């Protein structure tokens, strides 16, 4: 889809891009001579498109991520699907100097990795550099800056934040609400949210009960595993708004056959019995 994209060119918005498509300018190799553009010169467009070809050939998606509107970042997905990391973090519930990461989960469509404070959290810094694109939900405002600040690293990756893509498609209700809109059932984790994950961490620090940590990781891993079908769904729905829906549609992926952890229902019930109510 990237080679059909023009809205990353300064001066070309979505309406102008649509006009280009309607006038037969369907990809970077199409001649521009017969289309008049008010805010971008043909020479400037050709220069940017030459650079785009080069960056795509070199496998550098961050170039496009920096130029595309956040709601159009989905266009990066098909060309770089083999180098995507779906990530999500859990924290102790605080921001600033008192906040810290309790767990990170990473899923690349095949392999699940997880990182826990006090165990292997630093391994994330090396592992994440194996990928070129990060997919998150609300990661632009939360996960990415939190990781960079508290782990002291810079994530140079291209970034697809599904919050913006899905919101533009009419999805609402946070990550869990979006999941429900496409029929994802969390089973025993239904009703568990980020605040509940904070309570799980506090309970684990107090009890050191491994079942509590397993429940926290089961929740965190479910978040990243569910990002993949949301990404594919968003891609296909966005594609329907273009002239290219026939050639680029992607089948929904099968979920992992087995997840490394299962939630402990007794632990969940115990915390709920203390008066917890889901923060929807």
Describe the SSE topology.
Blueprint: H1 14-22, H2 42-58, H3 62-67, E1 84-91, E2 101-107, E3 112-116, H4 123-127, E4 133-136, H5 143-151, E5 158-161, H6 162-168, H7 174-181, H8 194-207, H9 210-239, H10 245-248, H11 265-272
Parallel strand pairs: 1-4, 4-5
Antiparallel strand pairs: 1-2, 2-3
Could you describe the 3D structure shown?
This protein starts with 13 loop residues before the first helix and ends in an 8-residue tail after the last helix. Strands 3-2-1-4-5 form a five-stranded mixed beta sheet. The model has no long low-confidence stretch (mean pLDDT about 95). The protein folds into two domains: about 1-60; about 80-270, Ribonuclease H-like superfamily/Ribonuclease H (Nucleotidyltransferase, domain 5, 2-Layer Sandwich), CATH 3.30.420.10. It has about 280 residues and is an alpha/beta fold. A hairpin with a 4-residue loop joins strand 2 and strand 3 (about 110-115). About 40% of the residues lie in helices and about 10% in strands.
Entry summary:
The protein is α/β, with parallel strands linked by helices. It is built from eleven helices and five strands, in the order αααβββαβαβαααααα.
């Amino acid at each position: 889809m990237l080679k059909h994209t023009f809205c990353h060119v300064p001066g070309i918005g979505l309406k102008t891009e649509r006009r280009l498509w309607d006038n037969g300018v369907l990809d970077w190799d199409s001649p521009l001579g017969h289309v008049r553009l008010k805010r971008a010169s043909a020479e400037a467009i050709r220069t940017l498109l030459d650079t785009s070809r080069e960056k795509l050939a070199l496998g550098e998606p961050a170039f496009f991520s920096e130029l595309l509107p956040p709601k159009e970042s989905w266009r990066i997905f098909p060309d770089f699907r083999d180098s995507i990391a779906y990530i999500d973090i859990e924290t102790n519930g605080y921001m600033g100097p008192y906040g810290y990461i309790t767990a990170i989960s990473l899923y690349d469509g095949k392999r699940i990795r997880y990182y826990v404070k006090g165990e292997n959290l630093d391994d994330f810094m090396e592992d994440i550099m194996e990928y070129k694109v990060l997919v998150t939900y609300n990661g632009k405002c939360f996960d990415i800056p939190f990781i960079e600040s508290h782990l002291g690293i810079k994530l140079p990756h291209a970034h697809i934040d599904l919050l913006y893509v899905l919101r533009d498609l009419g999805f609402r209700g946070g990550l869990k609400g979006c999941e429900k809109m496409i029929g994802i059932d969390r089973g025993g984790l239904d009703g568990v949210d980020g605040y509940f994950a904070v309570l799980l961490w506090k309970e684990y620090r107090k009890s050191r009960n491994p079942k509590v940590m397993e429940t926290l990781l089961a929740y965190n891993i479910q978040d990243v595993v569910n990002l993949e079908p949301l990404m594919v769904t968003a891609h296909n729905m966005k594609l329907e708004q273009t002239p290219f829906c026939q050639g680029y549609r992607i089948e929904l992926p099968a979920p992992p056959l087995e997840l490394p952890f299962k939630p402990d229902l007794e632990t969940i019930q115990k915390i709920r019995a203390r008066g917890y109510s889901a923060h929807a």
